[in-house]
Design a protein that fits this description.
Blueprint lengths: L15 E5 L5 H7 L5 E6 L2 H16 L7 E6 L12 E7 L8 H10 L1 E12 L1 H10 L1 H5 L10 H9 L3 E9 L4 H10 L7 H16 L2 H14 L2 E8 L1
Parallel strand pairs: 1-2, 1-4, 2-3, 4-5
Antiparallel strand pairs: 5-7, 6-7
Length: 236
């Protein structure tokens, strides 16, 4: 499930990419497919990096890469262990909503980005997220849950104040919004209920098979009910 549209980014062979808060490595692996990309996946949770390593090993075995290199680091987004201005692309996808000191996190992801290079930030979209909060207090109170709901315009302004230029926005994963509403309605941890299992099976089938009809439906619905908002910036 790739949130970032790499076709929007003017990347070149050998670019250095940081996927901060990489989770199981979905964007790390996608960036690894770029021509000779040097990709770092970083996360505060070591178990996430174990999952990311397994994913990247599969890509190596299947030669689903661009002949670049990858590595994984344990890292805190508020204290990144990298020098200033060392990455051509920083991806921060579905991370900031989990971070208590999100201002410091923003400072750090901008600090490690080279001038005239690109940052992509995605967060849950305001109104689909508000429905989740209204349906289930547990959704935001669980350990590692979402600490805040972002208003897109205010988030953009906060990033612009850090020396960025906003280049574009799009919405993603409209078919996932009803899934999360359903989970919040019946109980976030009740994944064994048949409606939740059935919808999850549908989403897995859609991600793996990418049938034309659901791709078209997702594109049509994204502006209305996309689960994520994706923001593209360039550092001045």
């Amino acid at each position: 499930m790739i949130t970032v549209d790499f076709n929007r980014l003017p990347l070149w062979p050998g670019c250095r990419v940081l996927d901060i808060g990489c989770g199981s490595g979905r964007h790390t692996a996608a960036a690894y497919a770029l021509d000779r990309a040097q990709v770092i996946g970083a996360d505060a949770d070591f178990q996430n990096l174990v999952a990311a390593r397994s994913r990247l090993k599969v890509h190596d075995a299947a030669e689903l890469h661009g002949n670049g290199r990858w590595c994984l680091n344990v890292a805190d987004i508020t204290r990144l262990p990298y020098p200033a201005a060392c990455f051509d692309l920083v991806i921060c996808s579905e991370v900031l909503e989990h971070i208590r000191d999100d201002a410091q996190a923003m400072d750090e992801i901008v600090r490690v980005l080279k001038p005239e290079r690109h940052l992509v930030v995605s967060v849950p979209r305001e109104w689909p997220e508000a429905i989740c909060w209204a349906l289930s207090p547990a959704y935001r109170r669980d350990q590692g849950g979402h600490l805040r709901i972002y208003n897109a315009h205010r988030l953009v302004r906060r990033l612009l104040c850090r020396g960025l230029h906003h280049q574009g926005t799009h919405f993603a994963h409209s078919l996932h919004s009803p899934y999360w509403w359903l989970k919040c309605l019946v109980g976030c941890r009740r994944d064994n209920l048949w409606p939740v299992r059935l919808y999850h099976r549908f989403l897995t089938w859609d991600i793996m098979q990418r049938p034309r009809i659901t791709r078209m439906l997702d594109r049509r619905l994204n502006p209305l009910m996309g689960k994520s908002i994706v923001l593209y910036f360039i550092k001045k």
